[in-house]
Amino acid sequence: MINQNLDSLKKDYGVKKIGVFGSFVNGKPGKNSDIDILVEFLKPVSFFEFIEVEDFLSKILKRKVDLATKNALKPAIKKDILKEVVYV
């Protein structure tokens, strides 16, 4: 579903790179699991623009999305996430 909306994400929201990590990548999502998504933007975005992208993704994926950027990842887990992420 992200693939089908990649052009819109790039054009309308300035997304440079986007990938999935967490339970949906390692095959262990629960019934109520959110989808962990790592995003990189072409230029800095405001908090409201960030939330707009998160809402757009939640809507198209029909599930809660937890959106993150590389800079926002906690140092203790950053390395593992960057190894695990599957870019679209």
From TrEMBL:
One term of GO molecular function: metal ion binding
Residues of the Polymerase nucleotidyl transferase domain: 6-88
SUPFAM superfamilies tied to this protein: Nucleotidyltransferase (SSF81301)
CC cofactor: Mg(2+)
Taxonomy, superkingdom: Bacteria
A Pfam family it matches: NTP_transf_2
Record keywords, A-Z: ATP-binding, Magnesium, Metal-binding, Nucleotide-binding, Nucleotidyltransferase, Toxin-antitoxin system, Transferase
Similarity annotation: Belongs to the MntA antitoxin family.
Protein name as it appears in the record: Polymerase nucleotidyl transferase domain-containing protein
